[in-house]
Amino acid sequence: xxxxxxxxxxxxxxxxxxxFLQAPYPARAQSSTIPISEEHASGDIQIPPYYNxxxxxxxxxxxxxxxxxxxxxxxxxxxxxxxxxGQAYNTSSGSRVFVGNALLAMExxxxxxxxxxxxxxxxxxxxxxxxxxxxxxNASQTFTTTNATKTVINGVPHYRWxxxxxxxxxxxxxxxAPEYGYGGGMAVANANxxxxxxxxxxxxxxxTTFLKTxxxxxxxxxxxxxxxxxxxxxxxxxxxxxxAAITVASKQLTVIAGNSPYxxxxxxxxxxxxxxxVNVDNTLAYEFRFKDNxxxxxxxxxxxxxxYLASPIDSVPPNAFQGYYYQxxxxxxxxxxxxxxxxxxxxxxSNLNYSxxxxxxxxxxxxxxxxxxxxxxxxxxxxxxxxxxxxxxSQPxxSQPxxxxxxxxxxxxxxxxxxxxxxxTGLLALLxxxxxxxxxxxxxxxxxxxxxx
Length: 453
What we know:
Low-confidence stretches: 1-29, 323-330, 385-444, 448-453
Helix content: under 10%
Distance between the termini: 22 Å
């Protein structure tokens, strides 16, 4: 069995390399580097040696803060579905800090105890979980972007950009041991997601930056794998988005979820929260402002509270997101690792293991059933002296004068080897995204290895 899997993996890696090593298609302007000296920019960079695999970026460099957004796509193949956003800046304690957020998995669960979130413990005997399926996004038929632009609203500068994957193909994977759908398993249905879109509004007000995000996930429609396949329904099921927040700083760093310190590495019990923060040298550096609602695009439209859960590492199976799937992505990871000193001032020797995150968290939508939804969480960075009160960008201080912003050079590298993982964790979430899926065989199809399309 293992030798067979290894052979399939080698074969698929060869197919992947052949597909993405073709000459580039001149559909977009491409460059080899991000223009980090510019105040804001958007464009494509190639991921060598896969010349058909591109990363569309938006970059903001102003007043000591650096924001980077990446979204993978292809001009010749169906576009893989992945995005990552991260921010580097100086804190009031004099430390350089980088905070990144990446989506690791889309989890479909049955909220049997009606607490609103996914309960899972894979270190217990036997393992327990409410997980029913995972949704592995395979590829998208279209990829559209909105370049970064700057506008000033009531004296507050706003930088806006976005990316949208249209007609996204996915596979519904059954949550059975040992992978439970995170690193393979049995495909039980094809899935079509109308769109997966991400839009951002990044603003600077005094010593505080606000990253207002807008996540839009379209209707999920299931179709049988084969004519005689069992009919699978999402009716009554909930959706959870598993994220990793990876943070690095040159001084002591602590994550606070709710009112208590939290470290996913210590397998601290899962804890619901509405707000979380990162403290550097006992000073507030970053906030997750999560007390908000999501919009379910039913008829009529429904507004419901989103549920947030700080999650321990043992809430995902051991060795999740590992295996032969990721070999074709090594070159992609190496490229990003090599660019890290320029992008964020971090060393290129940074650890690439996603499990280093101190803060694994889930954003849950208890009422879902495959319906389209919109959600707008906010992330706040404190870039200078800590303020006791900050207002969101929709309510700027009325007396604040217009702000003059200046592009700034990147800082020297940090003396640490902890982060940059966030970009890679998101890349690992691609799984089959770049490789595609092979559809043949039995009613329930094993996807313990990536499958070609």
